Amino acid sequence: MTSIPEALTSGPAQVRSIDPATGETWRVWTSTTPEEVQAAVLRARAAQPAWAARSLGERRRIFRRVRRRIFERRAELAALIQREAGKPAVEAMTADVLTTLDVVRFCERRAPRLLRARTMIPSNVALWRKRVTIEHEPYGVIGIISPWNYPLFLPASGTLAALVAGNAVVLKPSELTPATAVRFGELLHESGVPKDVMQVLPGDGATGAALADASIDKLFFTGSVATGRKVALACAARLVPYALELGGSDPAIVLEDADLETAASGILWGRFSNAGQTCVAPKRVIVANAVHDAFVDRITTAAGHLIMGSGAAGSDVGPMIRPSQLDALESQLRDARQRGAHVVSHARGDRHFFAPTIVSNVSSDMRIAREETFGPLLAIIRAHDDAEAIAIANDTPFGLSASIWSRDLTRARGIAARIAAGTVQINDALSVVGMADVPHGGVKESGTGRLHGEAGLRECVREKAIVVDPFPSWRQPWWFGYGAEHARNIDAFARFSHGRTMLERLSGAWRSIKMLVSRERPL
Ligand code: NAD
Questions:
Q1: What is the CATH number of domain 32-245+454-464?
Q2: Cβ of 205 less than 6 Å from ligand 1
C-alpha cells in the first residue's frame, strides 16, 4: 500500500483552482475519496470491453471529432490553462493546446499501422509449421496520475494513447489544475468517448495514492521522483506494471563553435518559458571555456528583456504555480551563493513571480546542480574540453533530456552518444517533449517507460502471441517417445542447427529433415 502522508488524509477533502498570479481561488472541487476511486475503476472495467470491441476505425472517427472539438474550443482551453496554471496565453496555446492536437492526430493516423497484428514464422527450422500472430491487446483500465505544469498536454498524451489502443482511463489530475483536466474529459465525452471509459477524478495526493492502490491494470505517472518512488512501490506490491515520467536536471552543452546568439536565445527560451517549470528545461548550461564569458553576457542581456506577467499580451514569464515554489528556489539560490556561485542577474519579482535568474561559477556540489530547480533559475558551469563537459552533464541522478549546441553536427552527435539521457537535441532544447511522434522519457531517476511515438502507444498494449499449427494431425518431434533413436535424431539436429562448419552441419541434415517432416511419434 502507498503510504498517504497524514496531512493528506486529515486535510480538507477539497482541491482548489487558484489563479497563481493573484492567489485568488476561483473554483473549489471535492476530492475524490478512496472508495469513489475504486468504484470509478470498477465502472471503467465494466465499460472497457465494449470500447475495445469497437473497431479501430470507429475509435479513429471519435478521435477525429475530438480533434475538431479541441480545435474549436482552443481559445477557451488556452484561457482556462492560463487562469489555472498562470502561463502566458501564447504558451497555453502552443505548449498545451497545439501539442495536444498533434497527439490526437498522431493517434488517429498512426495507431492503425502501429497496433496492427503482425504475423511471423519462427527462425528455428524445427518450428517450420508454426504460424505466429502477434496481437496487441489493451491492458484494460489504465490509471493516470499527472502534474500541473502542462495541465492539458501531459494528461492528454497518456489518455489519448490509452484510449485509441482500447483501454479505459481513470485520470487523477494535479490538485493544482483540476479544471483543465475536467474540461478535457468533457470534450472527449461530447465527441463520443463513453463516460465510464474516461473518468477524471479531482483530488490531492490521497486520491492519487488510492488510484495507485485500486484494481487498475497499469499506471502512468508523471511527477516528482519522490512521488514516483511511492507509486512504483505500490504497483510493485501487486505486480501492476507502470511507466514513470519524473524530474530532470537537463544539461545544455555549448561548444566553442556554437552560434552563440542562437544558443543563448534557444537556452533562454528553453529555461524560462513556462516560468522554468518544465521537466525537460535546460537547467545546467555547460559552456566551453573559450566562449563562456561571451555566452554569459549574451544570455544575461537577453534575460533582461523578458517581461514578467500573466495574461497580458506580450508577457513572457508567468508566476510560480504556488508561493512555496518561490521559497524553494530562494533556498537553492542561497546555497549556491554560500558555496561561491556568482549571481549574474536576479530580482525576487513581484508577489508570486520569480525574476529570471542566472547563476555562473556553479559547481557540482551545489544544490542547483544536484537537485531539480523548478523555476526560472539557470546554472552556468564552465568546461575546459568535451570530456569534462560530458562528465559534468552526466554527474546527476537524473537523465531526462539534454541539448548540445554546435555547428559541427558530427562532433555533437558523438557527444550525444555519451550523454545519459532519454533524448538529446542538437541546436534546440525542450521542444522534443512536444513532438507527438518522438518517444519521450528518461533514464536513471528520471523514470521508466516512454510517452509519445510508437513506444508510447506500445506502453498501452500487451503483445499477445497466437501460435497456430495448421496441421492438426501431426505430432511434434519433441513430444514423448524418447529412446536411443530419438537421442541420435536430436544430436543430428543440434549439429544441423549449430554446427561449427558446413560439413558438421550437413552431417546432421538428413536425420533432422526426416525427423522434422515425420508425422509419427510413438506416444
Ligand atoms: P508531484 O509528484 O508533487 O505530483 C504529481 C501528481 O502525483 C499529482 O497529481 C499529485 O496529486 C499526485 N500525488 C501526490 N502524492 C501522491 C501519492 N502519495 N500517491 C500517488 N499520487 C500522489 O509533482 P508535481 O509538483 O505535480 O510536478 C512537478 C514534477 O513533475 C517535477 O519534478 C517535474 O520534473 C515532473 N514532471 C516530469 C515530466 C516528465 O515527462 N518527465 C513532465 C512534467 C513534470
A1: 3.40.605.10
A2: yes
